């Protein structure tokens, strides 16, 4: 102690603290990485394929977005922040707050938000959106200060509450994206950009497809007094009606703004309905397990070659009947 | 009436239920008691048709599950679904329409709020309200009293009595013997997947004494509390 002196000990203590902090961050992110890998492996896809698919998908979305609209920078930031905000769930954050000190908690949350926002920066810089590139990491770090309570006294009203649950829950979770799609549709009409309008239509379709990504708790299927056919018919009918309801605020201005493109717009609407049916049936074709490689391959095939839907939908329907039978008819 | 014969269920090597035979009569409340892991929930899930099993389950209905209300020990609720929407979903699953839901809000729950924001007890009360409004003939209530406040416990006890009077078949489980003995007409003791004993009201005290003897034994003495 004498040899080191007071300053020496302080430096050593500080280095130790620094090591602890770095180690904690390292351990935390290694754990997050393991959790992500396990989640991907549970989907039945090899890790390398998952990472390649995620990377290519990200590049494709980036490319399409910047090629199609002048507002791509803003949308891109919105997309990044909507992803970042998913880390702000109250349960997750309550756990982190209870586990780590206040300071460490902010460090972890700000770091993970920045890591999530990072992949979006190169494209923003490449396309000259310097201000947005500066604002994004700042906003991402600031979001660490917020906790998004799914619970609470405010309940977002939806027209879908009478027939829960996919659209009611999904709309409440993704209302910002739906709002963005509506905004884009009006912008498309305003600036006379049909492609942007078509993109907004597709965006809302993708958002609705995401409502069917995860299987529900088996109780929510078991509770139905219906045969698998009746159950699926009801689900498909509700899906079609609700999608139509969510699409109308996009379709009407687009049809009014681009009357010469009516056939294309209705074609996109009908095609999206078919994709939604495929997404719904893909969920139940794997039920009660989560969708994995076979469903992913079939949906991927349908995206690249839409006529394949004509074969994929009946196939997924037959598989869904088979998977739902034990829960609805009790034929385990 | 629901009759179970030689019901067995295993998870890999673990035998969860081993040749369970029971009969549940209309207009009677049947309790299933047993410690954690005894197989109560597995038994209920098998009756509900949520688990594959060996053995037979007979009932007067072509499909028992269409007439069965199942209160799970830990009901699951979607995030961003209100209490009212949950009740309407459960009613619509049985093709029931509910008019005047406000007056049927037995426990005074905040039905306009997200169900996932409810406390444990409120979740249980919401799930119970939903299955009561389904107007089922057979009700399985897995731990209906746990996590619920005293006032609501009184309501649940009264509800069970009314269900009995309406000639429904009610099957309930609890870790708390006193709760079961208050509402049940008969209680079966389940241990390690086997029915050890079934007793009517007159045999409840001896059943409780046996439960205590077997469960507690000399374990507390061995703890040498000071």
UniProtKB/TrEMBL annotation, chain B:
Keywords from the UniProt entry: ATP-binding, Nucleotide-binding, Transport
Transmembrane segments: none
Residue ranges annotated for the ABC transporter domain, each copy included: 2-217
SMART domains (alphabetical): AAA
Presence of keyword DNA-binding: no
GO terms, molecular function: ATP binding; ATP hydrolysis activity
Name of the protein: ATP-binding cassette domain-containing protein
SUPFAM superfamilies membership: P-loop containing nucleoside triphosphate hydrolases (SSF52540)
Keyword ATP-binding: yes
């Amino acid at each position: 102690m004498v040899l080191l002196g007071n300053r020496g000990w302080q430096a050593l203590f500080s280095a130790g603290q620094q090591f602890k902090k770095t180690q904690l961050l390292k351990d935390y992110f290694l754990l997050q990485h393991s959790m992500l890998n396990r989640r991907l492996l549970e989907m039945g896809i090899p890790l390398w394929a998952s990472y390649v698919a995620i990377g290519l998908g990200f590049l494709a979305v980036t490319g399409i977005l910047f090629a199609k609209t002048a507002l791509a920078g803003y949308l891109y930031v919105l997309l990044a922040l909507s992803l970042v905000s998913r880390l702000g769930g109250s349960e997750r954050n309550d756990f982190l707050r209870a586990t780590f000190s206040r300071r460490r908690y902010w460090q972890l949350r700000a770091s993970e938000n920045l890591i999530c926002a990072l992949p979006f920066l190169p494209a923003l810089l490449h396309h000259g959106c310097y201000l947005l590139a500066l604002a994004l990491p700042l906003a991402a770090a600031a979001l660490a200060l917020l906790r998004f309570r799914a619970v609470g006294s405010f309940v977002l009203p939806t027209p879908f509450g009478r027939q829960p649950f996919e659209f009611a829950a999904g709309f409440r979770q993704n209302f910002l994206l739906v709002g963005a799609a509506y905004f884009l549709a009006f912008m498309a009409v305003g600036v006379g950009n049909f492609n942007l309008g078509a993109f907004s239509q597709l965006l809302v379709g993708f958002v609705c497809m995401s409502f069917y990504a995860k299987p529900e708790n088996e109780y929510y299927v078991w509770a139905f007094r219906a045969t698998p056919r009746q159950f699926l018919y009801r689900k498909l009918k509700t899906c079609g009606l609700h999608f139509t309801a969510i699409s109308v605020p996009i379709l009407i201005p687009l049809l009014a703004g681009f009357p010469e493109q009516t056939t294309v717009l209705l074609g996109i609407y009908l095609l999206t309905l078919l994709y939604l049916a495929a997404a719904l049936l893909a969920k139940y074709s794997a039920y009660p397990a989560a969708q994995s490689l076979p469903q992913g391959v079939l949906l991927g095939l349908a995206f690249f070659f839409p006529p394949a839907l004509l074969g994929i939908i009946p196939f997924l329907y037959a598989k869904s009947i088979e998977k739902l039978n034990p829960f609805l008819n009790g034929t385990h | 009436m629901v009759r179970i014969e030689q019901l067995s269920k295993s998870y890999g090597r673990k035998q969860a239920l081993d040749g369970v035979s029971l009969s549940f009569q209309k207009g009677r409340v049947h309790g299933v008691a047993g410690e954690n892991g005894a197989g109560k929930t597995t038994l209920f899930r098998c009756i509900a048709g949520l688990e594959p099993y060996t053995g037979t389950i007979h009932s007067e209905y072509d499909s028992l599950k269409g007439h069965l209300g199942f209160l799970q020990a830990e009901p699951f609720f979607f995030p961003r679904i209100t209490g009212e929407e949950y009740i309407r979903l459960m009613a619509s699953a049985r093709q029931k329409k509910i008019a005047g839901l406000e007056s049927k809000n037995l426990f005074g729950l905040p039905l306009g709020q997200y169900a996932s924001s409810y406390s444990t007890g409120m979740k249980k009360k919401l799930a119970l309200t939903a299955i009561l409004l389904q107007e089922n003939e057979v009700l399985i209530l897995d731990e209906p009293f746990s996590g619920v406040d005293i006032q609501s416990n009184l309501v649940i006890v009264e509800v069970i009595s009314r269900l009995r009077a309406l000639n429904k078949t009610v099957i309930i489980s609890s870790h708390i013997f006193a709760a079961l003995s208050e509402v049940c007409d008969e209680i079966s003791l389940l241990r390690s997947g086997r029915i050890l004993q079934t007793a009517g009201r007159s045999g409840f005290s001896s059943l409780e004494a046996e439960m205590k003897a077997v469960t507690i034994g000399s374990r507390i003495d061995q703890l040498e509390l000071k």
